[in-house]
Amino acid sequence: MTTRAGFVALIGEPNAGKSTLTNQMVGAKVSIVTHKVQTTRARIRGVALEGDSQLVFVDTPGLFRPRRRLDRAMVAAAWGGAADADVIVLMVEAHRGITEGVEVILDRLKEIGEGRKIALAINKIDRVKSEVLLALTKNLNDRFPFMDTFMISAEKGHGCDTLRKWLAQELPEGPWLYPEDQIADLPMRMIAAEMTREKLTLRLHQELPYQLTVETEHWEERKDGSARVDQIIYVMRDGHKGIVLGNKGETVKAVSKAAREELTEFLGRKVHLFLQVKVRPNWLEESERYSEMGLDFKDGNA
């Protein structure tokens, strides 16, 4: 039996559907999905099997024009993920077409694209008419020599099987990189922190855009098979702490309940989750926070 294995980098603008596609391909929720842009910070990898091939998805942060240290580190991580991958898939939203951001990505792909396997996935195809889709496909392929083009709806799963089969045959021959039952290479502590951060993002909407982070401080395996998980939510100001806690602690309780339920379902066993909120004014400038998120602090230098 000839096995194949390799890395697939999904790149595109924020909110293009990269996290949704990763989860669709893997069949489990390994990458947080919210309607807020730039929610993916670390290079989360989901592992999917297709026949004798093992596909390792590098779910990169959305590519955008960076302004702050965290932004710059995220963009560096995204291009780093693309540079290391065996196959690159550019995701473009059908209804948004070729934006300024897509133009920038196409230019960068021309720089790194020599001899690389790069495919195009047009996502959210249910939002536009077929003639718009065909025109967009032609326009994009005129601008860059993609190996293949796929019409998909990552959310509904349309076209995802075809894309996964194509990716499987394009990976290099070789032994699998991960055990068969492993779906992500992130430590559970980080996956748990991401789940809580997703719930905070959904709950708080515009109130705390990117000025909080979650860390799993302690993870205890208990004799009864359950786990006790202690997490700290770091915010930058006292006022933010009040927003996260909510009236009589209602907000943080609701976040804790939602995160605990999802983590319990994900692990298939009982989880006791405890959240603390701490003010840390300069967390965006602390190298340890970047390490926790799988980012390189040095990449954030201007």
UniProtKB/TrEMBL annotation:
<feature type="domain" description="KH type-2">
    <location>
        <begin position="204"/>
        <end position="281"/>
    </location>
</feature>
<dbReference type="GO" id="GO:0005829">
    <property type="term" value="C:cytosol"/>
</dbReference>
<feature type="region of interest" description="G4">
    <location>
        <begin position="123"/>
        <end position="126"/>
    </location>
</feature>
<dbReference type="InterPro" id="IPR006073">
    <property type="entry name" value="GTP-bd"/>
</dbReference>
<comment type="function">
    <text>An essential GTPase that binds both GDP and GTP, with rapid nucleotide exchange. Plays a role in 16S rRNA processing and 30S ribosomal subunit biogenesis and possibly also in cell cycle regulation and energy metabolism.</text>
</comment>
<dbReference type="InterPro" id="IPR030388">
    <property type="entry name" value="G_ERA_dom"/>
</dbReference>
<feature type="region of interest" description="G3">
    <location>
        <begin position="59"/>
        <end position="62"/>
    </location>
</feature>
<dbReference type="InterPro" id="IPR004044">
    <property type="entry name" value="KH_dom_type_2"/>
</dbReference>
<dbReference type="InterPro" id="IPR005662">
    <property type="entry name" value="GTPase_Era-like"/>
</dbReference>
<keyword id="KW-0963">Cytoplasm</keyword>
<comment type="similarity">
    <text>Belongs to the TRAFAC class TrmE-Era-EngA-EngB-Septin-like GTPase superfamily. Era GTPase family.</text>
</comment>
<feature type="binding site">
    <location>
        <begin position="12"/>
        <end position="19"/>
    </location>
    <ligand>
        <name>GTP</name>
    </ligand>
</feature>
<keyword id="KW-0699">rRNA-binding</keyword>
<dbReference type="InterPro" id="IPR015946">
    <property type="entry name" value="KH_dom-like_a/b"/>
</dbReference>
<feature type="region of interest" description="G5">
    <location>
        <begin position="152"/>
        <end position="154"/>
    </location>
</feature>
<dbReference type="GO" id="GO:0005525">
    <property type="term" value="F:GTP binding"/>
</dbReference>
<keyword id="KW-0690">Ribosome biogenesis</keyword>
<dbReference type="GO" id="GO:0043024">
    <property type="term" value="F:ribosomal small subunit binding"/>
</dbReference>
<keyword id="KW-1003">Cell membrane</keyword>
<protein>
    <recommendedName>
        <fullName>GTPase Era</fullName>
    </recommendedName>
</protein>
<dbReference type="Pfam" id="PF01926">
    <property type="entry name" value="MMR_HSR1"/>
</dbReference>
<feature type="region of interest" description="G1">
    <location>
        <begin position="12"/>
        <end position="19"/>
    </location>
</feature>
<dbReference type="InterPro" id="IPR005225">
    <property type="entry name" value="Small_GTP-bd"/>
</dbReference>
<comment type="subunit">
    <text>Monomer.</text>
</comment>
<dbReference type="GO" id="GO:0070181">
    <property type="term" value="F:small ribosomal subunit rRNA binding"/>
</dbReference>
<keyword id="KW-0342">GTP-binding</keyword>
<feature type="binding site">
    <location>
        <begin position="123"/>
        <end position="126"/>
    </location>
    <ligand>
        <name>GTP</name>
    </ligand>
</feature>
<feature type="binding site">
    <location>
        <begin position="59"/>
        <end position="63"/>
    </location>
    <ligand>
        <name>GTP</name>
    </ligand>
</feature>
<dbReference type="InterPro" id="IPR009019">
    <property type="entry name" value="KH_sf_prok-type"/>
</dbReference>
<keyword id="KW-0694">RNA-binding</keyword>
<feature type="region of interest" description="G2">
    <location>
        <begin position="38"/>
        <end position="42"/>
    </location>
</feature>
<dbReference type="GO" id="GO:0003924">
    <property type="term" value="F:GTPase activity"/>
</dbReference>
<keyword id="KW-0547">Nucleotide-binding</keyword>
<dbReference type="GO" id="GO:0005886">
    <property type="term" value="C:plasma membrane"/>
</dbReference>
<dbReference type="InterPro" id="IPR027417">
    <property type="entry name" value="P-loop_NTPase"/>
</dbReference>
<dbReference type="Pfam" id="PF07650">
    <property type="entry name" value="KH_2"/>
</dbReference>
<feature type="domain" description="Era-type G">
    <location>
        <begin position="4"/>
        <end position="173"/>
    </location>
</feature>
<dbReference type="GO" id="GO:0000028">
    <property type="term" value="P:ribosomal small subunit assembly"/>
</dbReference>
<keyword id="KW-0472">Membrane</keyword>
